[in-house]
Amino acid sequence: MYQESEKSYWSRFVDFLRKYFNLDADKASEEEVRDNIRKGVEFRGTNLWVLIFAIFIASIGLNVNSTAVIIGAMLVSPLMGPIMGVGLAVGVYNSELLKRSLRSLGLAAAVGLATSTLYFWISPLSTAQSELLARTTPTIYDVLIALFGGLAGIVAQSRKDRSSTVIPGVAIATALMPPLCTAGFGLAYGNWAFFWGAFYLFFINAVFIALGTFLIVRFLKYQKIEMVDPKVERRAKLYIGLVVFLTMVPSVILAYGIVQRTIFENNAQNYIDKVLAFDGSEVITATSTYSRDSSVIEVMLVGHTVSEEAIAVARNQLAAYHLEGTRLIVRQAGADNATFDNSTLQNVLRSNTEILDEKNRQIAALQQLADRYLSDTLPAADISRELGTLWGEQIERVSLAKAPVFTAEGRVVDTVIFCSIMPASGISLQPEDRQRLTDWLRARTKMKRVELEVKSSALAEQ
């Protein structure tokens, strides 16, 4: 009884998985999928011209460091076609389609390299921007992006409804165009590190998109076009595995190096902030250089000279911050061992000058605000004391305010002084006294409009 119940639960769970993860529900026919992929394989006429224009767009985007332009070029690019053709051809053992796909992919890569090289050769902008630099060091993460992008692409391609945004999304995520254009930048300027790094990223994307296509084609059990001897089939799978392995290994090594460098830089910054904060001195520049053999932290101190004993204590704390084997170089302004190159000093001076200029601009802006505030403020306390001196015991309290006069549209047209006077008990100010007070306030405040209010002595007694 228990076994039957357990089996029932397991069967329901399997049925649940089949229901929600079934790829056969809206699957298009094999012939339809093959025809669609074959159409994207050929690179002639329209596809070739679209590729050239897309290469120019991507190259301009990389040159001016515009992410939006690069994304637009990736959406236009037809490079996905021959790559998916390679995966399909291997999956169904279609040697003719494989040859056509490889030929088209080689032509596309050659045209892309030539077009991007030409653009960067004639472009006046020769600085390698961040969008270019990001395509020169591929890692295992790029492998994973290409693989999952290829899987998503072929799954979308194998559906009856191919109007979704999956294919454009795969084109953006896997980024086939930018590395090809970056390789062209490397060729144009003879920078072989850029060329090989970027072309390797393009190769990674092509291999793993094709691998994702191959895996889904085999999972969906597409019919093989050619009957293959089992030995030949095993050899083909071995070659596929070998290509995938050899493509992936360098990226794993690069990813490991990037992770190690990032960890080192974080540890170094933490060490500088906490250990090298000497009393009376300040770190004005700090450089952390990672190397597998001998990493270096170099800092420049200004202020009081730090003793060699204190620096030695700081060196002994490197291991506590996981910086074993790291060499600490401390340079101090005014010390005998301080040897600063001119470029470093100029950079420090330029940085300090920029900071001072910014502070001076802020001070000037605050001064303008203060002057404006002071000019708009009425010296009420001084005027009250002067009124008390002139009118003696006749006035008990004085209230003064300065306010703008607005139109119905909210436009300031004038400014008025409001003065409220409370006479002393038993005192009543006569009209001529009020006029004299008003005239005096106009002269004292240099304002034409003065509104005088005299409260009754009855209110004063309250």
Considering the chains and any ligands shown, give keywords for the structure.
462 residues, mainly alpha, three-stranded mixed β-sheet, 17 helices, 6 strands, 63% helix, elongated
Please tell me about this protein's structure.
This protein has 17 helices and six strands. Residues 336-340 and 458-462 have low confidence and may be disordered. The strands form two sheets. The chain has a three-stranded mixed sheet, covered by helices on one side. A three-stranded mixed sheet has the order 4-5-6. β1 and β2 (296-303) form a beta hairpin. By secondary structure, it is mostly helical.
Briefly, what is this?
This protein has 462 residues and is mainly α. The protein is built from 17 helices and 6 strands.
Topology readout:
Layout (H helix, E strand, L loop, with lengths): L1 H19 L9 H12 L4 H18 L3 H10 L3 H13 L2 H28 L7 H4 L6 H18 L8 H9 L2 H13 L2 H28 L10 H46 L5 E9 L6 E8 L4 H9 L10 E6 L9 H34 L4 H12 L3 E12 L5 E12 L7 H15 L4 E5 L2 H5 L1
Parallel strand pairs: 2-3, 5-6
Antiparallel strand pairs: 1-2, 4-5
Characterize the largest beta sheet: strand count, sense, and whether it forms a barrel. Answer: 3 strands, mixed
Distance between the termini: 98 Å
Strand portion: 5-15%
Q: If strands are numbered along the chain, what order do they take across the biggest sheet?
A: 1-2-3
Unreliable parts: 336-340, 458-462
Number of strands: 6
> Helix segment count?
17
Q: What level of helicity do the residues show? A: 55-70%
Secondary-structure element order, N to C: HHHHHHHHHHHHEEHEHHEEHEH
Instruction: Give the C-alpha Rg.
Output: 39 Å
How would you sum up the global shape? elongated
